């Protein structure tokens, strides 16, 4: 990521306009998708100033499938998240959340979900020419849309897992797992992408939940948390150097030597300065590695806990890990340990706490700021 470039997130509320998507007893998929998508986007806009949010639609408008992916591609998006609502044939009951990424394989079970969402192609004018030979009910057409995202496949799965886990936890929804399928809107994107199925509009109690404002807010927040965790974890993979003017220098640890007291001997002054420095150093949190005093030196730390408030030293959430420091990012307090000179040392430290914090990851710091 280039210096100063914002992280670009494209949010895609599925269906819209003349395409209602799945229809329940009193609501339509297109409306549920839009409400949750806008809620997710608001959380990002409010808390992540480094992220540019782009919506494929913000109103009840119809978009062709290829247009949704093109919006992401033309804006050089870093992540694409499509929001949908699931459905089953009459007489079948389903509950819970599923999150999909593109697949390299296909199965009879998976083909049905993708074919249902891909069938919106038939609403598009001139679809016969644009998608020549496409039949929404054909296995062969599903295979035709299979596409290998060599670089993005693993990242898409990681994004899906992060969102699925956070969404289910936030909204207390049944977790139906992370899956892969041949969705056209994912096939056409050129960045890590996932498609979230919020629940089953065809199941009466699920439909009521999906239209509950409090649940909508929890689902939007859960997707936001999952996205932020993914973004934080992958920023090391695509690092950038912040602009010089954005650097915040660390405060000097030791007080400056006073020159206005000539009556003191040099030895007395040296003793007092050393004592003051020792007092300040004792007040600093301990670290796995000795804290670097040079503000412009690149160091590596291990991020292992995120919280909405400042945590006290020895808090139970640290699980006995000591020497934690924090920085604030997007309204969230993020806790780290270590101040390593090399990435290898930080990776070693991460392994030491892996049993307690399996999701911990290495980040870079320079001039008091995280380097992405």
Brief write-up:
With 372 residues, the protein is an alpha/beta fold. It has helices at residues 29-47, 65-74, 108-118, 127-130, 139-144, 153-171, 184-187, 204-210, 213-234, 266-283, 343-352; strands at 7-13, 51-55, 79-86, 97-102, 175-181, 193-200, 299-307, 325-329, 332-340, 361-366, 369-371. The chain is built from eleven helices and eleven strands.
How would you portray this structure in words?
It comes from Palleniella muris. This is N-acetylmuramoyl-L-alanine amidase. The protein has helices at 29-47, 65-74, 108-118, 127-130, 139-144, 153-171, 184-187, 204-210, 213-234, 266-283, 343-352; strands at 7-13, 51-55, 79-86, 97-102, 175-181, 193-200, 299-307, 325-329, 332-340, 361-366, 369-371. A 6-stranded mixed sheet has the order 2-1-3-6-4-5, with helices on both faces. It has a 5-stranded antiparallel sheet with strand order 8-9-7-10-11, covered by helices on one side. The protein has 372 residues and is α/β, with parallel strands linked by helices. The protein is globular, with a radius of gyration of 25 Å. A hairpin with a 2-residue loop joins β8 and β9. The N and C termini lie close together (8 Å). It is 35% helix and 20% strand. The chain has 2 domains: 7-234, Zn-dependent exopeptidases (Aminopeptidase, 3-Layer(aba) Sandwich); 246-371, Alpha-Beta Plaits.
